[in-house]
Design a protein that fits this description.
The complex is a heterodimer.
Chain A lengths: L7 E8 L2 E8 L5 H7 L2 H8 L7 E6 L4 E6 L20 H5 L5
Antiparallel strand pairs in A: 1-2, 2-4, 3-4
Chain B lengths: L3 E8 L7 H7 L6 E4 L6 H11 L9 H7 L1 H5 L3 E4 L6 H14 L6 E6 L4 H7 L2 E2 L4 E2 L7 E6 L4 H8 L4 E4 L4 H13 L6 H14 L26 E6 L3 E5 L9 H9 L8 E2 L4 E3 L4 E6 L2 E5 L2 E3 L4 E21 L3 H16 L6 E9 L16 E10 L2 H12 L9 E19 L6 E6 L1
Parallel strand pairs in B: 1-2, 2-3, 3-8, 4-8
Antiparallel strand pairs in B: 1-9, 4-20, 5-6, 7-16, 9-10, 10-14, 11-12, 12-15, 13-14, 16-18, 16-19, 17-18
Helix pairs in contact in B: 3-5, 7-8, 8-9
The chains are: A alpha+beta, B alpha+beta.
Chain lengths: 100, 441
């Protein structure tokens, strides 16, 4: 099995209680593989109870990117959250642990 | 005659470092420097400072910023930033005093007022969806409400000859969109051109986050982070190229620009700002030289009818405590310490809104979601939100008493801070009455 981290990189950002986690392949030839592997169901399974709301997947075909928008993902958002990482800056590293 | 603009980013948050940005400003390569100084909660905290002392609430770093960038202004450069935070008038006074001190009398300072919509929000009784309540229901807890300001008033001020433009909650991309459109003569309702300006703005607005910050992950991708270059762009009618100062660390390459492109964007086909609904989904990036990336393909649709407002809410206090446990059995001892504190806090439950305990090194970031192994040490983190200071102090005391908890609790550290929530709401654009003023230093 290959971890996503071996073929892709990621960044997460926050707006209120919403975390966005984007993923781009190192090699654009892997874009279709990412699209097939990173379904909303797979990502939801990985994040589990960390995300209490919907997860929506958007595509950026111009740059071979996928963007996962996770609602209710930051325990209320940076100023309310009691989590160790209230911005969810580390959310990007969990998606890279998915087997593809 | 074709025009172009060379524009740099000077900061991406309130405490961003100045020296690397000054290096870019003093390079002679850019005519405009734009500064984002506010994060979601920065403005609410600034409003609280102003409530305690009405002469404060502006960017506290303005004196040193004005001094540091005086040579850039003296050379004819223009600065734009949301330095006003909760008090644009006080910020303008700071800038005027700083410019005079630097011998730069006569420079025109443009100020945008009107993003503070607290009174209106309370009158109109806005829905606060993320909190599941309304402004009226928690009226006495609301400490601030600021609408995001777009490019329009900034363009007006540049047109009036302002060389230092500041305001309160100017939207991050709008800081850059205004000078790009003004310099290139692009109308603010020319949606495809505003979209081109917006994608450049989005790639610049996060400063060194766009040139390699938060990117390195050895061994897969490694960059020199010891002296990151702030990003800049050269934009004309034909193309837009993102770059940075030669000899600085980090990188402007496909990887850093892609991650920045999607950063804090939700639907890439509808990136909403006060200026536009921009479509980034078909954007392409092309490496056209060392640390030079050409960006193209952004298109635009009309701007939203509503403006986003961030409402600050006083939610009491946050208590955070940490303590370390090491060696064999460390996880079990840390868990028993967490259980001990939970039992001890049962009598305070009425004053505690939220409580969590995490083991840093085991489950504090992802729960049990990440594959991993056993650590040789863990740090217990106890976090609580309380609605009064008495409860907060009692929680802090219980966490501190772990000195007499399970064997070997080391480095106990506890702090209590105000919990200011910020939550989004939306107002019709016409409800936000902006006004501009030009003063001379």
């Amino acid at each position: 099995m290959t971890k996503l981290r071996e073929i892709a990189y990621s960044r997460s950002g926050d707006k209120g209680d919403i975390s966005n986690v984007c993923v781009f392949p190192y090699d654009d030839a892997d874009y279709d593989r990412l699209r097939a592997a990173l379904t909303v169901d797979v990502v939801r399974e990985k994040y589990g109870a960390l995300v209490t709301g919907d997860i929506v997947r958007y595509e950026l075909p111009g740059t071979c990117g996928l963007n996962f928008v996770m609602y209710g993902a930051l325990d209320g958002g940076v100023s309310i959250s009691l989590r160790a990482d209230p911005h969810g800056k580390s959310m990007q590293n969990l998606i890279l642990d998915i087997d593809v | 005659m074709s025009q172009s603009i060379a524009i740099g980013c000077g900061s991406a948050y309130a405490t961003d470092r100045l020296d690397w940005a000054v290096e870019l400003a003093d390079s002679g390569l850019v005519d405009f420097m734009c500064f984002d100084r506010l994060a979601e909660r920065t403005l609410a905290l600034a409003q609280i400072r102003r409530l305690n002392d009405e002469t404060t609430g502006q960017d506290p770093f303005l004196p040193e910023i004005t001094e540091a960038f005086a040579p850039f202004l003296a050379r004819g450069g223009t600065m734009i930033g949301n330095f006003g935070a909760a008090n644009p008038a006080a910020a303008a006074d700071d800038v005027a005093a700083g410019l005079r001190k630097a011998g730069l009398e006569g420079i025109r300072i443009g100020v945008v007022y009107g993003d503070d919509v607290l009174d209106h929000v309370l009158d109109q009784d806005l829905e606060l969806d993320e909190l599941g309540t309304s402004a009226r229901a928690i009226r006495d807890k609301i400490v601030s409400a600021n609408a995001y300001i777009g490019a329009e008033p900034i363009v007006d001020l540049l047109e009036e000859g302002a060389r230092f433009v500041l305001g309160g909650r100017i939207a991050d991309p709008s800081l850059f969109v205004a000078p790009i459109c003004w310099k290139l003569g692009w109308a603010l309702d020319d949606w495809d051109r505003v979209a081109r300006a917006t994608v450049v703005a989005h790639l610049l607005e996060c400063g060194t986050h766009s040139t390699g910050g938060n990117y390195t992950d050895p061994p897969y991708r490694e960059l020199d982070l010891t002296r990151l270059g702030f990003p800049m762009a050269v934009v004309d009618e034909r193309e837009a190229v993102i770059t940075k100062l030669d000899g600085t660390g980090g990188a402007v390459d496909i990887g850093t620009q892609r991650t920045q492109l999607a950063y804090e964007v939700h639907d890439p086909a509808a990136y909403l700002t006060p200026d536009i609904s921009a479509d980034f989904s078909q954007v392409t990036l092309e490496q056209v030289g060392p640390d030079r990336v050409r960006v193209s393909g952004a298109t635009g649709n009309p701007r939203p009818d509503t403006l986003k407002v961030l409402v600050g809410v006083d939610l009491g206090f946050k208590v955070i405590s940490e303590s370390s446990f090491g060696g064999p059995g460390c996880i079990e001892r840390a868990r028993s310490a967490a259980d001990l504190v939970r039992v001890r806090l049962e009598s305070l439950a009425a004053g505690i809104d939220d409580l969590r305990t995490d083991l840093i090194g085991v489950d504090s970031l992802f729960g049990d979601r990440m594959s991993g192994g056993e650590p040789v040490e863990v740090r217990l983190r106890i976090a609580a939100r309380t609605h009064d200071k008495v409860t907060a102090d009692a929680v802090a005391a219980e966490a501190d008493h772990l000195w007499m908890g399970p064997n070997g609790a080391g480095g106990i550290f506890t702090r209590t801070v105000p919990a200011i929530g910020v939550t989004p709401a939306f107002l019709p654009r016409d409800d936000v009455k902006l006004r501009t003023e030009v003063i001379e230093a």
